[in-house]
Design brief:
Elements: H1 2-13, E1 25-31, E2 36-45, E3 60-67, E4 73-82, E5 87-93, E6 101-105, E7 111-115, E8 118-124, E9 133-137, E10 167-171, E11 188-198, E12 203-213, E13 219-230, E14 236-246, E15 251-253, E16 259-264, E17 282-285, E18 301-308, E19 311-319, E20 330-332, E21 337-340, H2 345-348, E22 359-361, E23 366-377, H3 385-393, E24 397-400
Length: about 400
């Protein structure tokens, strides 16, 4: 059945020149502050909007809608080939059939993300002893960018830090409890269910719920985490956001380097020679710092690239400008750990007072973090990571015509 759906989606993607009956086409003008190759763009459609026949002819672009605040509808599509300052009109079709990004919930509760029929990642809620995580994580072309161990054991890989599983979100000191490690007197982030699992022509969306539980069984926080995966041609774009609410008292995010939004990259991408492993990878951040010098430093984005299966690939993480303590600090290691951590200020720089990175969320209140991952081919420069960051931090302005 899955193969049939995938083949049908591919057929329909090639057949968009023939529009479905009673198609709704919305004219959207887009202006970018800088050149953009392709970027997800969203615009709110008023609840009283009436679609009319567009006054200009042009290419039909796939769009996807979802409910938004105030009874409005949010329309999202991929804008492409924009020149700085120029206005471009996109004709966005909202009823084209076929899902380019498909999400499948397995019987055990895990969720697979497929882009144009190929597995990008899986949200695993069953095998992590203390946390849910994303594994594998595949770059365009199919190569896995994260270390297999300890999820799989193909051999020949490093076996340090068994809590480094794929891509995950936890922290090493929350109300004094270690949620980062997996053994000992540690806390757990426990998957409690899904709010949404959506497939679509432009993006796929998973919204999951998680409880933060101390070793004594007391829940101190609950979160809603969301992963959006976009159908783009120049790599893979993944938007991760998480909103954590303090319950049963305040939540203190402690000053420690052990956190927070992290992935462990393939050994072949490491930027340091260690235990006989060849160093062919590199790290570069938005301030121009490289390799080991990036650890603990503040930057708007960071990129880690190196060889996998004989090809240079990489992943960049963008810190949303609206995030607390933007630009964030980075727990990025030249042996392959790649983590965003806005809390470890004293651990990163002993000139800062102990505990200066602590952040308290009062009981009943929430804190939100948003990040974009850009999985790409080539080096930082070849993938034009800085330009992709610009289109994320200062997105094009879209207006319904």
């Amino acid at each position: 059945m899955r193969l049939l759906k995938t083949l049908l989606a591919g057929y329909l993607a090639l057949s968009t020149a023939v529009l479905p009956a009673r198609a709704e086409i919305i004219s959207v003008s887009v202006t970018a502050p800088q050149d953009v190759r392709e970027v997800p763009v969203s615009v709110l459609i008023p609840k009283d909007y009436k679609a009319i026949e567009p006054r200009v002819a042009g290419e039909i672009t796939r769009g996807q809608t979802e409910p938004a605040e105030g009874g409005q509808t949010r329309l999202t599509f991929i804008a492409h080939d924009l020149k700085a300052g120029e206005k471009h009109t996109f004709l966005v079709e909202t009823r084209i059939l076929g899902d380019a990004v498909e999400l499948f919930q397995q019987k055990n509760g895990n969720v697979e993300f497929l882009v144009n029929g190929k597995l990008l990642t899986r949200y695993d809620v069953t095998t992590g002893p203390t946390k849910p995580y994303f594994y594998p994580l595949n770059v365009p072309g199919g190569s896995q960018i994260v270390r297999h161990w300890p999820v799989e054991t193909p051999g020949g890989e490093t076996t340090d830090h068994p809590h480094h599983r794929g891509l995950w979100f936890t922290h090493g000191k929350v109300n004094g409890v270690d949620f980062w490690l997996e053994k000992g007197n540690v806390g757990k982030t426990i998957h409690t269910g899904y709010e949404q699992i959506v497939s679509g022509p432009v993006y796929g969306l998973m919204r999951a719920k998680t409880d933060w539980v101390k070793p004594d069984g007391k829940k101190i926080a609950e979160d809603v985490r969301e992963m959006r995966v976009y159908n783009v041609s120049g790599g893979a774009l993944m938007d991760f956001s998480v909103t954590i609410k303090a319950v049963g008292g305040p939540v203190v995010w402690g000053d420690t380097k052990e956190g927070t939004f992290a992935l462990r990259l393939a050994d072949s991408m490491r930027a340091a020679v260690e235990k006989g492993k060849i160093a062919e990878g590199h790290i570069l951040n938005s301030t121009g710092l490289k390799d080991a010098a990036t650890w603990g430093k503040a930057a708007a984005w960071c990129d880690y690239y190196g060889p996998v299966d004989g090809k240079i690939v990489g992943v960049a993480i963008f810190d949303d400008p609206k995030n607390p303590r933007h630009p964030t600090t980075w727990h990025v290691r030249d042996y392959g750990l790649f983590a965003v951590n806005p809390f470890g200020l004293h651990d990163f720089d002993k000139k800062n007072a102990a505990g200066s990175g602590d952040l308290t969320v009062p009981e009943g209140q929430s804190i939100t973090f948003r990040y974009r991952l850009f999985l790409h081919a080539g080096t930082t420069q070849e993938a034009n990571v800085a330009a992709v960051w610009q289109s994320f931090s200062a997105p094009p302005v879209a207006l319904i015509q």
